[in-house]
Design a protein that fits this description.
heterodimer, A: about 600 residues, 6-stranded mixed beta sheet, disordered N terminus, B: about 325 residues, 13 helices, 9 strands, about 15% strand, globular
């Protein structure tokens, strides 16, 4: 049926086109993405938690009659980009090669990022890019998520709780034993890196306000107050590790919950209320992949709204004051902004666990006590500090954050000598790129962090060769020597992956430092290759068992193994299992040219 | 402007008349044109028999490959066939995959009723069955088979094939003791290890055109136990007393159905093939059981099946 109609219609339309050549379809432009055509393109950079919602709204908008500016169609395209990363990219002039298409609209998780961006631009003598007073698209407050039994042990829901309780637990050597639960061990806190994560930034602001007793007017002078410094340092000392996104904690927590060990991974994590709702619904990272179904946790989390006050992630829409945004794009962006504020679209916000930005839309499920949250909270809101204060706060945090003790374990097998770009055989090798990324990453450690460097390969007959180029020591006085060692690396032979990981992990556990984040960072471009494949399976299972055992028990000495799958010859699933067995995070640098960005994300855990 | 409007109206009238006529006659595939039938690899003989003496062009391909091609089609692009004879829910997998890449437009129409069905079975030599029975506490099931791998050499068809998809689903049913599992359950390290052990030999062994059950018989020593559809294994086991075939529980069934291209009436296609009964007879002649299984196919959701394919890769 379709064929005959199609033939007739095409014939007629061909005649029509010939007769009416002045009618143009603006979408028939010749572009890489056929959906963009000659439309007014509005690229939107959004923080990850709203990618699904905004992608859906963008699709609805693009299909609607609203998507026009004058005679031209409008095409809105949404991409997920971390708030901190976009702030940095905009402040540094935005490199389309590495940062992607320049956004017309930027919607970070919180308007504080806009303040930080403008502050950074002002320091360079450049005009602000993020408008003042943006309209919130949707809201979610920062909460302290805690397993319900632990919260109840502290008096929840009858007792108001907050950062002072977290501080008391952080300072307690007896930990949960003081509350009748020695089996839960010491108090362990999860917080993300405030340079990358909105939750991390909001938590840092909130805990600092709590330290001062204020709810507004946080000043740079406050940050230098010894009591405030001590407060911050003691909170940070309870951190198990940092990271660039809260999903890492929630995914690890969920896996631990499935194993029955949720109460010994962490005791509390600073997250957005929306993430807690997702976790309790059985979808910890907020995204259901194909074939997945929600699996509610055995132990639900409850939201503690700090009595000292908290902040909202207000998800603003910044239509950027940038020289690449023309009048048509601005008009189109305003139309999209108006579209997403409509009550029917704000209802969609609720479906994703956020509070509507439009005050005309009432709170409803899932913002309910049944899901571990309280629609009547928060009771106290904190003022977002000025840009300068936030910059100073981040600088202070860089010194106060929990120190790290990290062993970098780097594969220097023969394959690392292959060109990073196979079409450019004379270009940099995989090892060259890894070295540069490692050197850059070393710059993110503070002087007191303990960092060591180990390389691994094999000899001609498969015997592992493991070299400690730099023992674990304070990086401050050793940074240059370490960098020189990295620069001197050359590719060798095989890849005794399992044995080196096992040995490195065992050594880190043996010399565990409870005052620091203890970790191994393992970068490999291949699979286990030690000349004897017959025992590979046993080696791997033994490694996983060791790593898993290290995450359990009340007196555990957690050493996390962060893996980086470098290139396309690795077994990412295997490396993922190694990382997750130790409650760490696997990273992918399948495209080896992304290693710098990936390594930055790795180091954000410290 | 008026002429333009009149021309548009004329086109619309012509197109509408043709649509109305076709709707009334139901003749979705022009009678003068050859019927294009794509068939899953394991149904190749059935399709050739159906095509014999009829104006049918047959294309044989692994259903996974056909499905992946269909997923990549743009809106309105034709699938390249009038109908697709499959032995699993490949239409559901295709639709689910298209949805996940952001395209809801259908490329396939409503499938026929189940023409025939065949259970996934485990085939092994007697001595292996005896040994495995003892190791498995008397009842051989996929969970136990996976636990015994890789020491036990397991041969499975790849899930790019219909038999492979159903066998793998049966095996996974065995691990989870039912069909109530989702893709996120595959994150369980215990499942990951078990699945890896179960599939490691098969995923790296190239059998060429042979199925694992053919390889079990022709290449003794390659596999200890294989998965297959009963329809594939029964003819090979006929007359042999040294082999066993058993249906594990919970069972999984391959259902043979004819899936038309979008906007094509499957009943008309069946008529062009001599009717549904002729198709069912051809399948029965190839060892398939008549009609649909009484308790459903015993397969998880389409999205989960897709993730099983990816788990294998």
């Amino acid at each position: 049926m379709r064929t005959r109609i199609a033939v007739a219609t095409v014939t007629a339309l061909a005649l029509l086109a010939a007769a009416c050549s002045d009618v143009e379809d603006a979408r028939d432009g010749d572009t890489d993405d056929p959906r963009r055509g000659d439309c007014v393109a509005v690229d939107v950079a959004v923080s990850s938690e709203k990618i699904e919602l905004l992608t859906d709204l963008a699709r609805r908008f693009n299909d609607s009659d609203e998507a026009r500016v004058g005679e031209r169609c409008v095409y809105v395209e949404v991409r997920s980009q971390a708030s901190g990363a976009v702030a940095t990219a905009l402040a540094e002039g935005w490199n389309e090669t590495t940062d992607g298409l320049r956004p017309v609209i930027w919607s970070p998780a919180a308007s504080s990022w806009g303040t930080i961006l403008n502050q950074r631009l002002a320091e360079k003598g450049q005009p602000p890019m993020a408008p003042d007073d943006p309209t919130p698209f949707m809201l979610t407050p920062l909460v302290i998520a805690m397993p319900q039994p632990m919260a109840e042990a502290l008096g929840w829901p009858d007792e108001p709780l907050g950062w002072s309780d977290i501080l008391e637990l952080a300072r307690s050597e007896a930990g949960w034993a003081e509350y009748g639960h020695p089996e839960w061990g010491t108090f362990r806190l999860g917080k993300t890196n405030p340079n990358f994560s909105t939750s991390g930034l909001s938590a840092l602001i909130a805990q600092t306000y709590a330290a001062t007793g204020k709810t507004e007017g946080l000043s740079s002078e406050d940050l230098g107050n010894p009591a405030v410094v001590e407060y911050g340092r003691d909170i940070e000392n309870a951190v198990v590790h940092y990271g660039d996104i809260t999903m890492t904690f929630l995914d690890n927590w969920f896996r631990a919950d499935r194993r029955g060990t949720a109460l010994t991974y962490v005791s509390a994590v600073a997250v957005e209320e929306k993430s807690l709702i997702d976790y309790n619904a059985g979808n910890p990272d907020g995204v259901l992949q194909q074939g997945e179904e929600p699996r509610p946790p055995r132990i639900p989390l409850v939201a503690i709204y700090p009595e000292e006050g908290t902040l909202y992630s207000d998800n603003p829409f910044f239509i950027l004051d940038a020289d690449w945004v023309d009048d048509d794009q601005r008009a189109a962006a305003e139309k999209f902004q108006e579209f997403v504020q409509r009550p029917e679209n704000q209802q969609r916000v609720l479906e994703f666990g956020f509070r509507p930005g439009n005050p005309a839309v009432a709170l409803a499920a899932p913002i309910s006590t049944a899901n571990g949250v309280d629609p009547d909270q928060p009771a106290t809101l904190l003022e977002v500090p000025s840009g300068q204060v936030m910059i100073d706060l981040l600088d202070t945090w860089a010194e106060q954050r929990k120190g790290a003790r990290v062993l970098m374990v780097l594969d220097v097998s023969g394959s690392m000598g292959e060109p990073a770009d196979r079409s450019d055989p004379n270009g940099p090798t995989r090892l060259d790129l890894a070295k540069e990324a490692l050197i850059e990453g070393l710059g993110d450690f503070k002087a007191g962090d303990l960092v060591g460097l180990r390389t691994f390969t094999t000899d001609d007959v498969g015997t592992p060769i493991v070299e400690d180029l730099a023992p674990i020591a304070p990086i401050g006085p050793n940074r240059e020597a370490l960098i020189n060692q990295v620069r001197s690396l050359i590719p060798r032979r095989g890849t005794p992956l399992y044995q080196v990981t096992q040995d490195s992990f065992d050594e880190m556990v043996e010399n565990y430092d409870p005052e620091r984040i203890n970790a191994v960072v393992l970068l490999t471009d291949g699979e286990n290759e030690d000349g004897d494949p017959s025992d590979d399976r046993q080696q791997f299972e033994r490694l996983l068992a060791t790593l898993t055992a290290g995450t359990e028990g009340e007196n555990l000495r957690p050493v996390r193994v962060f893996t980086v799958a470098y290139g396309t010859d690795t077994d990412p699933a295997e490396l993922q299992r190694i990382a997750e067995a130790s409650n760490a995070t696997p990273y992918l640098a399948t495209d080896v040219t992304t290693i710098r960005k990936v390594f930055t994300a790795v180091v954000s855990n410290f | 402007m008026k002429r333009f409007a009149a021309l548009v109206a004329a086109v619309a009238l012509v197109a509408g008349a043709m649509a109305l006529r076709d709707a009334l006659t139901g003749d979705d595939v022009p009678s003068g044109e050859q019927l294009r039938l794509t068939c899953a690899t394991e149904l190749a003989d059935v399709c050739r028999e159906l095509a014999d003496g009829w104006d049918v062009e047959v294309t044989i391909d692994d259903p996974g490959r056909t499905s992946d091609r269909l997923v990549r089609l743009g809106a309105g692009e034709p699938p390249g066939f009038d109908a697709w004879l499959v032995d699993g829910p490949w239409d559901g997998v295709t639709a689910d995959n298209r949805r996940f890449v952001g395209d809801d437009t259908p490329v396939l129409g409503e499938a026929s009723e189940v023409l025939a069905h065949s259970p996934a079975v485990v085939v092994m030599f007697d001595e292996v069955a005896t040994r495995l029975g003892a190791d498995c506490g008397g009842t051989v099931g996929w969970r136990c088979i996976g636990d015994a791998a890789p020491g036990l050499r397991v041969g499975l068809p790849a899930p790019e094939r219909g038999d492979g998809m159903v066998v793998l689903a049966a095996a996974t049913n065995g691990f989870f003791d039912g069909t109530d599992y989702a893709a996120n359950d595959f994150d369980d390290p215990e499942f990951g290890a078990w699945f890896g052990d179960l599939t490691s030999l098969s995923s790296r062994t190239d059998l060429g055109r042979r199925t694992p059950v053919q390889a079990l018989l022709a290449q003794r020593g390659l596999f200890d136990v294989v998965g297959a559809l009963e329809a594939q294994s029964a003819p090979l086991l006929e007359g042999r007393s040294d082999l066993q075939s058993l249906t594990t529980t919970p069972a999984a069934w391959a259902e043979a159905r004819l899936v038309p291209a979008a906007d094509v009436d499957v009943e008309q296609v069946l008529e062009r093939l001599g009717g549904a009964s002729r198709a069912s007879e051809a399948l029965a002649g190839a060892g398939w059981r008549a009609g649909a299984p009484s308790d459903g196919a015993g397969l998880p959701a389409a999205g989960v099946l897709q993730r099983l394919r990816e788990q294998w890769r």
